[in-house]
Amino acid sequence: MAAPKAPVLGGKAKQVTLEEAVFAAEVKPHLVHEAVRAELNAKRAGTFASKRRGEVSGGRSKPWRQKGTGRGRQGTIRAPQFEGGGHAFAKEPRQFELKVNKKAAKAALRSALAAHAKGGSLAVLDVTAFSEPSTKQAKTVLGDIAAPVLVVLNAEEETAWLSLRNLPKVTIVTPSELEVAAVTWARSLVVSEAALPAVQGRAQ
Questions:
Q1: Backbone φ, ψ for residue 6 (5° rounding)
Q2: Tens of pLDDT along 129-178?
Q3: Domain range for residue 55?
Q4: Please, which residues bridge with residue 6 across strands?
Q5: Degrees, nearest 5: CA angle 15-19-24
Q6: Boundary residue ending a domain (95, 127, 159)
Q7: Can you state the angle between helices 29-42 and 102-119, rounded to 10 degrees?
Q8: Are 91 and 119 in a shared domain?
Q9: What does the buried/exposed string (b/e) look like for 88-120 if buried means 16 or more CB atoms within 10 Å of the residue's CB?
Q10: Other CB atoms within 10 Å distance of the CB of residue 82
Q11: Residue 165 CA to chain centroid, in angstroms?
């Protein structure tokens, strides 16, 4: 099987050979699903809470006597059926983290990257095309690739970063911030030539 290749944007018309172990890996949807769930769950604060009937203020005595009123018996106005009462099955703060093994997480990232390579939605960016920050130039470089677009740049590639950041439906991350959920969400993946080794290293 030949090593996968990706077109270069912004420079001469050429293709870059990609790491076969990463971009030609078997796509495993179940691992991608597991990793995406774990990443999205990790972003949930889980700080929601509501009070039970024993935690709301007031209601120390019966609202009316037990018998003779013609109404149903009640022990406290802080029961759930009263306005201002405690919640039945009250919510409590909780953690949503899901454990994903390191090997499974790397395999999931490989699968997400390989899906873009096999689908023809992966491109490599030549940042030398940006001599100065220019959103207009960035739009020309990206051309008609399908949005939303995930762009991976090194932090020091500031000119390209400033050029691309104002484009609609374009998200920019560094290799260390790359997540399976973001790669899966994007219809197109663009990686700078300098960031490509770091991306490949994270998936190996």
A1: -135, 145
A2: 898 999 999 999 998 899 999 999 999 999 999 999 999 999 999 999 99
A3: 45-95
A4: 16
A5: 95
A6: 95
A7: 110
A8: no
A9: eeeeeeeeeeeebeeebbbbbbbbbbbbbbeee
A10: 15
A11: 18
